[in-house]
Amino acid sequence: MGGGTEPDGSSRSDKEWEQFLRESVAGAADAPKEPSARARAVTRRLREQPAPDPAGWRTYTPARPKRRTGWYVAGLLASLVLLVLALAPGWVTDLFPGADSSPQAAETARPADAPPTQADRRPTRDEPFRGSPAARWASGAAGITVPKAEAVGETSAAEVERALDRSRDFLVASSLDRGVLRGEHPERAIALINPHQKDVQDLLRTAFRSPSEKNDPLLLFSRFQPSRVHLVGEVVKTRGRLTYEEGERGALQVTADVTFVYPVTRAEAGGDEIVRTIVRRELVLSFDDPDKVRTEPGTFSIVSYKNDMTNGGCGTPTGYFEPPFGTDHAADGAGADIDPYDRSASAGRGESSDDECRRATRS
User: Fold this and answer.
1) Do residues 271 and 290 make contact, with C-beta atoms less than 8 angstroms apart?
2) Is residue 266 within 8 Å of 229, Cβ to Cβ?
3) What is this structure's pTM?
4) pLDDT digits (tens, 9 = 90+) for 247-282
5) Helix segments in the chain, DSSP class H
């Protein structure tokens, strides 16, 4: 049987006809294939995008150099600030009220030098420590650094801790208590002193009744006469520390070295002048073994006391600080000059030193 007939009437052989049928079913190798859906989408997106403008051979744009104007401006401003600080430090602290009052780190050892001089700025009722190193000191008992208690000699760590607490309590009761500062009798402070210590008890019996150079309550207590002087605000600035060591006959000996700054004004209405009375107290307290020394539980004996006092009066002792106001400043402090904020050396006035009145080089 013939395989098929061509349009011109010729016929194909059976073998050619079978080959034709196979290629029709499988598809010719060079037959065009329909593109996939993804290919059609890519082609359509390329056609829709506008052709980029050809870059000209002279269209190169060099990178712009970085401007350093900011560095010049910063340097100029820094130079101006340094110049102003050098020429007018008071103006800067007036512009920034807290500039001289950032807290100072606690004192843990005797400093090597006096604190730097502050800008000359008058104190005010709102800022009674203005222009003073005390502006950066802590307030009240917080300014008294108490060391970590450890056993020493025959005294346990717990006993050392109690002695340190009592020592700080005495400083608070004798020099920070508001009632005592207003002239009241320092009963709480006196109750901490060994009642069997004859020399100190003699001082206490006569000091408040008949003050004198030898028996002056100001050697141990801070007092102002409320009819003449008022404290400014509720804050007393303090700076100092407690230390301890083994004393005689197995006792624990605590040394307190603290400076107190009291801003005060006249009690008279309308007075706006503020004076800072500055007192540094250095006390050595002995917590004795009751089996070796006659004492009472919870009390201590006073081994020694020294103090430096400025702006507290230099006349006949009255049992109260007598701050100089107005023209009284010229007559007050006829003795040696002293920087009341310099804690780099030991305190001077007291039992074992001269009773010369000191004149403050700054307040």
Assistant:
1) no
2) yes
3) 0.73
4) 999 999 999 999 999 999 999 876 789 999 999 999
5) 14-26, 37-48, 69-87, 89-95, 157-175, 178-181, 187-190, 198-207, 328-331
